[in-house]
Amino acid sequence: MFRLTLYYAGLNKFRYVPNRVLPTEVIRSERQNLRDILIRRLSRRATQDQDAFKAIQETSSKMIASLVNRFREACPGQGTVTLATPTSWQEMAFAFGYKLGQGDVQIDDIDQGSGIQSLLMFETLYLVDRDYFQQFGWRQAAVWAVEEPESSLHSSLEARVAAFLSSITKDPASRLQVLTTTHSDLIVQYADETAVVTQNNGESKFRIERDPRNALDVLSAAGVSRWVHPLLHFPLDPVILVEGEFDVVFLEKAFQSMQVKRQIRIADVVRLGGGADGGGVDKLRKYIKDNASAIQARRPEAPVVVVLDWDARNKVDGFTGLIPAANTYKVMAWPDSALNPKLGPSFKGVERAYSDRIIQQAIKSGAEIGTKKNGEYVVSSDDYREIKSKLAEIVRKGLEAEDLAHCREFLKEVLSSAGVTV
After folding, report:
1. Is 178 contained in some domain?
2. Residue 381 CB neighbours (<10 A)
3. Which among 264, 254, 309, 235 is positioned nearest to 417, based on CA atoms?
4. Are residues 71 and 124 in the same domain?
5. What is the pLDDT at residue 4?
6. Distance of alpha carbon 135 from its chain centroid, rounded?
7. Which stretches within 136-230 are classed as H helix?
8. Given 105, 137, 155, which residue is the final one in a domain?
9. What is the Cα–Cα distance from 317 to 396, expressed in whole angstroms?
10. Which residue of 165, 216, 293, 350 is 20 to 30 Å from 99, comparing CA positions?
């Protein structure tokens, strides 16, 4: 028999969701909490006679608006979701549930597939716990213990649930931690850290992996989960491929400074496991050519965008031809308009887009950067490797608004190509 157990320890709430649970039973077990949420949100509304039921419907729609949006993304073609609320005083003793509507037809949640039911269940539990913290600030946090959340989910919904569980733990307003047991490579990919448990001679050992790629390597080798191509990791997130490590560092910090809401994965050949001896445009081209099938297998809404350095601009056509007419793959290069006019061609790669502030900070730290009479900064090719490292150290500490003065518009174009709006 299904059992949902709630524990209260001091200021924390513990919620346990077993494997193979019946999601609609969990939703209905929360009907009192859902009623309370609805009543609180109705408290400022007019609730006279028929206006009361109209207010209930309107408020319930707003209450689950984020749930509806995520449901549409996860289950395209399944219609929309509404709360099953009362329409008369005789129905006031109602039990909450969901109705899925397609045209004039509405179908109860219990008649849906178990995957859709699971998604609605997690959304409902999040709605209840988040609202509780917002209304009663003395409650500090909630901990969910979920057994194999991937059960009964097809691959697309499995990815959505994995990303959803990750996102709600990162929202400061949710004050939520999620612990799961899993065999799913998708759950592992979106986890902040993975505890790998092994047993030898009756002794259990725990190993913490904070890099999802390392965790997947260990788990796939042990037969716990399947092996996944690095280009197919994080199937809901766009991937930006660049020539080298310093490009990765700059773009990560730039998107952080721009407060990009959607998760974007940035990688070079080394980070993808395609070689440990550095990057470069030729190695990147070979990697893409050798792994074209993996790129074509990605979802169109989470494409691979290749961003080449300004000095490899003439090679864009060669990259484009690797995967012709693919809607999961795009190629761009840094334009002159995104470069700092005070930095001449002696600055190779992404460094030519750096701001004056970053250059001046590097000079103060001992970087051998000269200045021409016209104010242009120059570097010697012999010193450039060391200078790149010093510049990267400054970028890793974080970027300021002025640091994107030259390249902000180009970065917006990159994000747009990846399907991300700023």
Report:
1. no
2. 8
3. 264
4. yes
5. 42
6. 28
7. 155-170, 185-189, 212-221
8. 155
9. 32
10. 165
Query: Which of these three, 208, 228, 248, is where a domain ends?
Result: 228
CA-closest candidate to residue 372, choices 339, 346, 394: 346
Look at strands 194-200 and 239-241 and give their pairing.
unpaired
Both tokens of residue 337? 């308009």
Q: Amino acid letter at 237?
A: D
Coil, helix or strand at residue 350: helix
State whether 71 and 44 are in the same domain. Answer: yes
Looking at the fold, whether 80 and 198 belong to one and the same domain comes out as no
pLDDT at site 1: 32
* Whether residues 222 and 128 fall in one domain: no
Tell me if 161 is assigned to some domain.
Answer: no
Please enumerate in sequence order all residues whose Cβ is within 8 A of that of 76, keeping only pairs 6 or more positions apart, or say none: none
Domain shared by 297 and 255, yes or no: yes
pLDDT tens across 22-73, in order?
767 777 777 777 667 666 665 555 445 556 566 666 766 666 676 667 667 7
Residues 261 and 343 in one domain: yes
Spatial strand order in the sheet of 304-308? 265-267, 239-241, 304-308, 329-333
Amino acid at 329: Y
Containing structural domain, residue 69: 5-155
Angle between helices 155-170 and 114-135 (to 10 degrees): 10
Question: CA nearest 75: which of 20, 153, 13?
Answer: 153
Q: Is residue 184 part of a domain?
A: no
- Considering the domain boundaries, does residue 171 fall inside one? no
How many structural domains comprise the chain? 3
**239 DSSP β-pair partners:** 265, 304
The radius of gyration computed from the CA coordinates of the chain, to the nearest angstrom, equals 26
Phi, psi (5° rounding) for residue 384?
-65, -35
pLDDT of res. 397: 94
Q: Are 395 and 308 in the same domain?
A: yes
Shared domain check, 276 and 217: no
The answer to whether residue 10 scores a pLDDT higher than 90 is: no
Question: No. of H helices and E strands in the chain?
Answer: 15, 15
Ordered DSSP codes for 9-39: ETTEEEEEE-TT--HHHHHHHTHHHHHHHHH
pLDDT tens-digit readout, 320-365:
989 877 788 999 999 999 999 999 999 989 999 999 999 999 999 8
